[in-house]
Structures are given as C-alpha cells and as structure tokens.
Write a structure and sequence with these properties.
Elements: E1 4-15, E2 18-29, E3 33-37, H1 44-51, E4 59-64, E5 67-68, H2 74-78, E6 80-83, H3 95-104, H4 110-123, H5 139-151, E7 157-161, H6 169-184, E8 188-193, H7 196-202, E9 205-210, E10 213-218, H8 220-225, E11 231-236, H9 242-249, E12 254-260, E13 263-268, H10 274-284, E14 290-295, H11 299-307
Parallel strand pairs: 3-8, 3-9, 6-7, 7-8
Antiparallel strand pairs: 1-2, 1-4, 4-5, 9-10, 11-13, 11-14, 12-13
The structure holds adenosine-5'-diphosphate and magnesium ion.
Length: about 325
C-alpha cells in the first residue's frame, strides 16, 4: 500500500460568514498525480493554503507525510514544492537568478544547487531566456519560470495551483508533460484546475469539489461509472414526429432524448452497440439523418449529474 502523503479530515475553513471548506475529506497517496477539479470558488486554493499551513482553519485535521502540519514545520515544508496560482517571482532578478534564489532556500551546497538550477531551466524550456527579467517574458514563459522556481529543489511533493491559466497551448503542453515527468521521477503531485480536459489527461485520481465539499472522487473511469450516462449520441435529423421521438425513447438503454432545431441528443446508460440500434431504428423509420457523433461521458457529465450544474458554465 502506498503511504498517504496528505490526509485531510473534516476540514472546515470559514472566511467570516462564508464557509469556503465544508467538512472536506481527502487522502492523497504517494506516487499519485492527484487532481482537484472544481469551478472557480469551489475551495481549491483554500484547501491548498490550509495544507501548507499558510491559513488557519476552523475545524478538522491535516496530516502531511503522516504528521500534523504547523506553520513552523520547516522540515516538512522543505520536502514540498509549491507553485501558487498567482505568479510570485522577483522582478529585480533574472530568470536564472530567480530559480537560484528559490533553490537556494533549500539547497545549500553550491555545486548541487548549480546543477539543480540548470536542470530546472532545461526542464521548463527556459534556456534561451536565462538572462531575461520577468517583465520581458510572455505569460506562458512567466508561468514556466514560476514552476521552475517551485520545483528546482526536487521536492517529494509538488503542489500546483492552476499552473496553466492563461498560457498558450505550447506552454500548456510543455507544463503537462513536465508534470508527468516529475511524477515518473518519483514526486507526488497535487494539481488543481478548472479545466476538466487537463485533469483527465494527467491525473491518476481526481476529487471533484463544489461549494467546499468533495462531491466525488476516484479515477476518471470510476467517476464516469458512477453516473447514469454511458454514451451520448448526437445526430442531425429534421422533422421528426412525436411518435418517432417516442420510438427512440423506447429503445433499449436510452434514458433521455432531447430534440432541438434538428439536433437529436440521446443519452444512453451502459450497454453496447447503442449507436447501431439507434441508426437501425432511424433506417427502419425512413428518417434521413446526418452528422452522427457519439461520445463517452466527460467529467462535465459527472459534475452535471451530481450537482445539476454545468462545470463549463461556472467558469470565468
Ligand atoms: P478556488 O481556488 O476553487 O477558485 P477559493 O479557495 O479561492 O476557490 O475560494 C473559495 C471561496 O472562498 C470563494 O467563495 C471565495 O470567494 C472565498 N475566498 C477565498 N479567499 C478569500 C479571502 N481571503 N477572504 C474572503 N473570502 C475568500
Ligand atoms: Mg484558486
């Protein structure tokens, strides 16, 4: 059994009247790329700040590496790399000097530090920018510098809070690949995002947050098997009659049918070959159709079925 790296029990955090974390429970094990997915305001950053003992909380407990985290737990903090949501680097220092500064907080030996700084520069693809000051960097490069500063000292646990917000696709891919590389080299990763595609792409386990609560957790396969939707089928077909729509509704495994402006959306629960049966029905009814498209459920469907809201709609 992998050791738990973080254990959060019944965590409650209030900002005056507002309950930002409402009895949150989470366990993150060694070796995971653990995703915290939730809309803006769901409590991701608050949870991370509590884990790092940057914030006092009202109730519950947090154990990091099996021990209670305290504001002065410097030995534990040394083993954690943090990439905060808001970029935090020194404007007066160059790219290389910034990374060296943060690495130097943990790594005293000069030769080792030099090597680590170089590795972080290569890792984040900043070789051509080492002498640049932060204000000269694009948004994506600045994010990459922020990450390099957080991971240069080779921490065992890396916490990243929305590291890809507002970055170009090239930097985004580079960051995601980099995270997997750090994980392969042995680091446990906690990754927060409101982009469900990213979370699906890199996380081995996911907790979905809403209103400061963990509403579901598991691997992406486990999360998707919790919900009724097994497959969504879209097709274009004009002038369907009420009887024909009823006929589609009565097909095996079909549990929801929406029909608007010639687009038919059919949700099926489990079952195989749903598309074949539906197309077969359309043919028998001599209905002309086009633009057939079938998709498996996304994490948005999971969020929608549990909360009744679209994850996508609650963004930005
Ligand atoms: P997320 O990171 O998922 O977007 P946050 O943890 O930042 O969510 O916020 C959770 C809730 O707490 C939100 O309703 C937010 O407005 C509120 N909040 C966050 N930080 C503060 C603060 N310093 N003071 C008051 N309310 C806050
Ligand atoms: Mg946040």
């Amino acid at each position: 059994m992998a050791q738990p790296v973080i254990e959060i029990e019944n965590l409650v955090k209030r900002y005056k009247e507002l309950v930002a974390l409402d009895h949150l429970n989470l366990t993150i094990k060694q070796g995971e790329v653990f995703g915290l997915l939730g809309p803006n305001g769901s409590g991701k950053t608050t949870a991370i700040n509590c884990m790092l003992a940057l914030l006092y909380f009202d109730k519950g407990s947090i154990r990091v590496f099996g021990k209670e985290m305290q504001p002065d737990s410097y030995d534990m903090k040394r083993q954690i790399g943090v990439v905060l949501q808001n970029v935090a680097v020194f404007e007066e220092l160059t790219v290389q000097e910034n990374i060296d500064y943060f690495c130097g907080l943990y790594i005293k030996e000069k030769a080792v530090r030099k090597q680590y700084v170089e590795e972080a520069i290569v890792f984040s693809g900043l070789e051509d920018f080492r002498k640049f000051y932060p204000r000269k960097l694009s948004g994506g490069l600045l994010r990459r510098l922020n990450i390099a500063c957080g991971i240069a000292h080779k921490p065992k646990l890396i916490i990243m809070d929305e590291p890809t917000v507002a970055v170009d696709p090239q930097s985004r891919n580079r960051i995601l690949e980099g995270i997997l590389k750090l994980n392969h080299e042995g680091a446990t990763i906690i990754y927060t995002s409101h982009y469900m595609e990213e979370i699906e792409q890199i996380c081995s386990r996911i907790a979905i947050l809403d209103g400061g609560k963990c509403i579901a957790s598991g691997t992406k396969e486990e999360l998707k098997s919790m919900i009724k939707t097994g497959e969504k089928i879209h097709l274009e077909a004009w002038d369907l009659t009420t009887e024909q729509l009823e006929g589609v509704r009565r097909l095996n495994h079909v549990y929801q049918v929406d029909y608007q402006e010639g687009m038919l959306e059919i949700r099926c629960s489990g079952g195989r070959h749903n598309l074949v049966h539906i197309l077969d029905y359309m043919t028998r009814q001599e209905i002309t159709f086009s633009r057939v498209h079938s998709e498996l459920p996304t994490l948005n469907d999971v969020f929608l079925e549990i909360t009744g809201k679209e994850l996508r709609d609650s963004l930005e």
